[in-house]
Amino acid sequence: MSCFARSMLLPPSLLMPGMVLQACHSTPPIPTETALAPALAHMDRDGDGKVTREDYLAVAYSAPPFGMADENSDEQLQARELADLLLSQDPITFDGGKGRAPVSQVLDPQVFHPGSYEERMLGDLFSFLAMEARYRDPAPPLPDAPAISRAASTATLDSPESQAVLDMLHKAYQAVDLPFPPRLIPAAPSSTPGQD
Amino acid sequence: MSWPRTRSASHSVCLRLPWLALSWGLLLGVSCGEPQRPTSLILVSLDTLRADRLGAYGNLRQITPNLDRFAHQAVVFDNAYSQSNETLFSHASLFSGRYPSELGQLTYEYLPSHQHPFLAEILSAYGYRCGASVAGGHLSPEFGFDRGFESYVNAREWGSLFHTLPPALDWLDRLDQEQPFFLFLHTYDAHQRYLKPTPFGYSWADMQHEGSASAAVVAVTGTNSIFSNHYFPPENAQVTLDFSQLHIWDQAARSRIERLALDPGLAAQPFDSADTDYVRGVYDGAVSYLDALFGIFLDSLDARGMLDNTIIAVVSDHGESLGEQGLFNHRYTLFDTDLHVPMMIRLPGGKGGGRHVQQPVGLIDLLPTLLDLLEVAPPAGAQGRSLVPLLSGRQVGQQETVFSESAFRMISARSPEHRVTFTGMAADSPFLSDLLASTPCDGPAFQDSDTEDLSIREDLRRQMLDWRRALSPPPQVQQQVDPRLLRALQERGYWGL
Using CB atoms, which residue from B2, B477, B485 is nearest to A24? Predict the structure, then answer.
């Protein structure tokens, strides 16, 4: 059990100022007043120079009762008490939350980037070319998704499937007067893949 | 959690250059001269923090008084942009000075190549003690970011400064006072979920608000399900999903959003402007919480007498969409909401503090800059450039365009006035340059740009092309690609022979 957890089990009347903030060793308290002064001022919603029970309740969500936060029972929250409040509430579990599991336990990379690198690169290439051609004119025949997928799964540009898709895309680009990437112009006409 | 003892404020740092650094200096032809007091380095990454939330970046709401206090002592880069819109890739770029696609395939099995050293590895070789305190997630050690650190504490999965500060301070207190150190401190405080403990959680939002947003801010990944101003209904409901407002052309990204949006537990409800303001308010509450803890960290360093001999750099790795273009969360766009980040460098003693730099810069520039300040040679081929001249008010070359990449098939060029995004091809694709060169600027690939002016798009397209052609493909990709594709690519002139 941490020092803070132990100290928070003590009745407020036994908590000396700064006690909660002292580590298990005899060391000076962690400096908090300067850092928390603006937050304390912001809590003073009615601007009377004091953070009262009403000011606290206006923002208290799953929080200790005001009486517990007000350690010296003077009906106002002071800097040191705000510091104790801050450092006693774990931001993940303060309201019963459990937090998130490690990324490795919940993330399935294949959901976002399915298939092998080659399939992804070739699939993206064919899909991109089809998208640009279709945007300018839906009329020219374009390879459909299954044809693109079959071509991409061959993992090479030189397969008959990939060459057929590139041929179809090249013709579509010519029909809509788009420049086709020179390095990807297919070598020779081949059988027509599935059309969109 | 326990806060460690503080170091005596009266300690002094030995004025001795480590022998290893001396050896490296001789090897690199660096003049050694008289031994000098070693300067240490602290790098703070405030994950998912938008720049526009800071007073130092123009926010009038004064959510970040402590970060603003730091900004008065630091040089503030007003137009800093991250090189990716996600933690994993952005930190890889931050640590290496290279673009994410240079380090590996842009998937969630991303493991940055060891061929390019990380900041901690470089400083470790120069005799720096290197420690890190991180909040898990994509900075978990399994992603390889612990390279070069003698201590890499994963304090809490998706944790806060609440969790990462104590181990960081404890590590500092246990250091040999005579050796320079590099501390990397990280937090997910501004990452969803946003809701933070009293009094911060609702300090900038109306706790009494009731609406669709109420559940979203409480849930761990609630904002994933808010798109285009509607919660999406269960799959069996007869409701048409409205994606018309979304500027997402990448099919994988749209599919991802659709899958997330179809949460069976949520009823179809409109998400109006009051809901959006509420979510923004709770996000601001998270930022104020983060700011308070950062202020405690800053004052703890002061109490240890570290502010006079330590360079402190504060950044965020990416931003967060909060309803702009109907989007929440991050990752799905390369808009400024996702990429404009705070970047502030405090020199020892606060020298030059309060200066604002307008020139666009990238997080990729931070590694060369920090190494330059520490008089350490940068790794060969690092794409970032040193911004040290800017710290003293001078200019750095003519480059004013910042480039970024997304795992969801997007790259972008950000000039001082405009952003052009090219969508549809992954940054690690061997075909990217060809398509970037040949695709007209008036098509769907450029639709996410912030201007309809084709001459502006054309100019930034050319700059993107020059940028891509200057980059080398990731070494991991070349080693792993199917030999058939590799051969076909090489025969066509890709990746050389």
Answer: B2
Give A26-70 pLDDT, tens digit per residue.
345 689 999 999 999 999 988 899 999 999 999 999 999 999 999
Domain C-terminal end among A41, A73, A88: A88
Residues 48-87 of A with CB under 8 A from B: 56, 58-63, 82, 85-87
A94 within domain boundaries = no
- In chain B, residues with a C-beta closer than 8 Å to the C-beta of A89 are 197-198
Contact B380, B97 (CB under 8 A): no
Q: Do A82 and A116 belong together in one domain?
A: no
**Contact call for A90 and B289, based on CB within 8 A:** no
Q: Answer yes or no: is A192 within a domain.
A: no
For residue B49, give every residue at least 6 positions away whose Cβ sits within 8 Å of its Cβ, in sequence order, or none: B190, B287, B290, B316, B319, B320, B341, B342
Answer whether residue A37 is part of any domain: yes
Q: Do A61 and B288 touch (CB under 8 A)?
A: no
Q: How many CB pairs under 8 A join A and B?
A: 222
Q: What is the pLDDT of residue A13?
A: 36
Contact B203 A100 (CB under 8 A): no
Residue type, B21: A
Alpha helix (H) ranges present in B394-482? 432-438, 454-470, 475-480
Q: Which of A50, A73, A88 is the last residue of a domain?
A: A88
- Residues of chain A found within 8 Å of residue B485, distances taken between Cβ atoms: 118, 121-122, 155-157
* A48 and A11 in a common domain: yes
DSSP per-residue string spanning B143-169: GTTTTT-SEEEE-STT--HHHHHHHHH
Q: Is residue A195 part of a domain?
A: no
Q: Which of residues 81-120 of A touch B (CB under 8 A)?
A: 82, 85-87, 89-92, 94-95, 97, 99-104, 107, 109, 111-113, 116-118, 120
Give how many domains chain A has, as a whole number: 2
Q: What is the pLDDT of residues B460-475, one digit of tens each?
A: 999 999 999 998 777 7
Q: Do A69 and A120 fall within a single domain?
A: no
Which domains does chain B show, CATH number per domain? Answer: 19-194+278-391 (3.40.720.10), 414-491 (no CATH)
**What is the ipTM score, two decimals?**
0.86
Tell me: do A14 and A62 sit in the same domain.
yes
Q: Range of A170's domain?
A: 111-184
pTM for this one? 0.88
Q: Is B345 helix (H, G, I), strand (E, B) or coil?
A: strand
| A63 Rama class: left (phi>0) / alpha (psi -120 to 50) / beta | beta
**With contacts defined as CB-CB under 8 Å, which chain A residues touch B465?**
none
Are A39 and A80 found together in one domain?
yes
**Can you tell me the distance from the alpha carbon of B155 to that of B132, in angstroms, rounded to the nearest whole number?**
10
Within 10 angstroms of residue A170's Cβ, the number of other Cβ atoms is: 19
One-letter amino acid of B127: G
Q: In terms of domains, do A47 and A123 share one?
A: no
